[in-house]
Amino acid sequence: MENKLELKSIEFFYSRKNILKNVNLVCMTGDIIGIFGRNGSGKSTLLRLIFGTLKPKSGQIFLNDKPIGEKLVLNKYIAYHHEDIFLPQDITVRNLIPLYFPKGSDQNNIFYDSRISKIERQKVSTLSPGEQKYLQFLLLVNLNHDFVLLDEPFTMMEPLLKNAIKEIIIKNKFRKGFIITDHYYSDVLEIATRKMMIRDKSIWEISTDDELADSGYLPNGIR
User: Alpha-carbon distance 86 to 103, whole Å?
Assistant: First the structure.
């Protein structure tokens, strides 16, 4: 089934300062949308608005053309992986996984991952920050959500884990839509099917990577 997440005319203020204005965005099943922008441009704010932890000053979010409200709870359909680790620490990886996936068959995508099999007997607290972040990503992306928001998924990641994350996103895009923001822009560019730039408080779709330099996000001649 193809699903659609849509933002219409979203506007957000923080302490009377306008952070985002007239933001329109559509994410469909199969989309991997990379969102770029300078520090403070509103990238993380936009993801929090989509997830529902922040409320827009005006505008509306729709899921399959139905406005999201009390009868349609956002986090039942949208998973949000932010840069902070929120996993319980005093538990082994092996015992943590069933908390997310009670059924044995649903656990296979986690336990059969070659990187997880090496650490499954360790406590979460003993894992490196990159390993914890990868485990957190793997748990969220395998939940039964239609859309996944990824804020800085490649930060603190060694190259092998970065490649694993990219492969998993590509593998799952046929049943989910992804929205990603990360200053490791080359990793996002590698897998993004669409690219968006937040500039002057609004969001713009870009068609070429050179537009990142033209917008002032990258120095000219760097990709």
Answer: 22
